[in-house]
Amino acid sequence: MSQITDPRDRLIVALDLADVEAARALVDRIGDAATFYKIGYRLGYNGGLGFARALTERGLKVFLDLKLHDIGNTVEEGVRAVADLGVSFLTVHAYPQTMRAAVRGRSGDLKILAVTVLTSYDEADAAEAGYALPVAEMVAKRAEQAREIGIDGIVCSAAEAVAVRGVVGPDRLIVTPGIRPVGSDLGDQKRVLTPGEARRAGIDHVVVGRPIAGAADPRAVAQAIVREMETA
Ligand code: C5P
């Protein structure tokens, strides 16, 4: 099982905000209620990489959701550069060549998470992209390859978490978005779990964005999510 000692580390707050100023304001409002933040394309391409370093220098953990996929040498060197930022998690697409390169470039505390099949893809999207396998089989196959290659964890939907755990075993991390505290707006998420359900499904870290960023009191929402996972 995962080695998570601070229960706050189970919550990863998605900083899906337009710029560093807005992200810094949210982090400051949340204060010590959260320890882990996710930076994706939007903020990453607008000053977010420097901000990631600033967060790690404050003792906070960072998940860079950059979903890398390129020729092996480029991925390896890119991962090496990311490791130097002091971040904790980085995503890559779960292609065997890409995953092997990411493992070669990994160093220090950086963990590599693989995205098996984007959850926006249904059977028709996969067929259109030239894939012959059904999506669920592709998810299982890539999760198995990730485990064999030595990837640290898998990002998957709540609906896939139990099946993925069965494939990767107890030692890999499962990180899942689409988590909604009871009573919060679903937004465009369709199949959601509450933080407590996620914990009971064996999910190690939940990624939560809008329910925290859009709350009147983001700090209180973060605290409630951590408490719910702790007591599940
Ligand atoms: O705001 P919300 O809690 O829905 O944010 C969830 C985060 O997880 C966002 O950064 C989103 O891009 C990401 N994500 C997701 N669903 C997926 C994959 C990633 O919501 N299937």
UniProtKB/TrEMBL annotation:
Organism (species): Methylobacterium radiodurans
* Listed SMART domains: OMPdecase (SM00934)
Reactions it catalyzes = orotidine 5'-phosphate + H(+) = UMP + CO2
Q: Kindly give the InterPro entries that the UniProt entry links to this protein.
A: Aldolase_TIM (IPR013785), OMPdecase (IPR014732), OMPdecase_AS (IPR018089), OMPdecase_bac (IPR047596), OMPdeCOase_dom (IPR001754), RibuloseP-bd_barrel (IPR011060)
Which residues does the record give as substrate binding sites? Answer: 16, 38, 65-74, 119, 180, 189, 209-210
Mention one GO molecular function.
orotidine-5'-phosphate decarboxylase activity
Q: Which family does it belong to?
A: Belongs to the OMP decarboxylase family. Type 1 subfamily.
- Cite the active-site annotation: 65 (for ompdecase activity), 67 (for ompdecase activity), 67 (proton donor), 70 (for ompdecase activity)
Query: Is the keyword Lyase in the record?
Result: yes
Report the gene name.
pyrF
Documented EC number(s): 4.1.1.23
Task: Write down the Gene3D superfamilies for this protein, in alphabetical order.
Answer: Aldolase class I
Q: Name one GO cellular component term.
A: cytosol
Q: Where is the Orotidine 5'-phosphate decarboxylase domain?
A: 10-225
Keyword line: Decarboxylase, Lyase, Pyrimidine biosynthesis
Q: What is the annotated role of this protein in its UniProt record?
A: Catalyzes the decarboxylation of orotidine 5'-monophosphate (OMP) to uridine 5'-monophosphate (UMP).
A GO BP entry is: 'de novo' UMP biosynthetic process
State the pathway, as annotated in the record: Pyrimidine metabolism; UMP biosynthesis via de novo pathway; UMP from orotate: step 2/2
Q: Reply yes or no: does the keyword Oxidoreductase apply.
A: no
Quaternary structure (record):
Homodimer.
The protein's name: Orotidine 5'-phosphate decarboxylase
**Transmembrane spans:** none
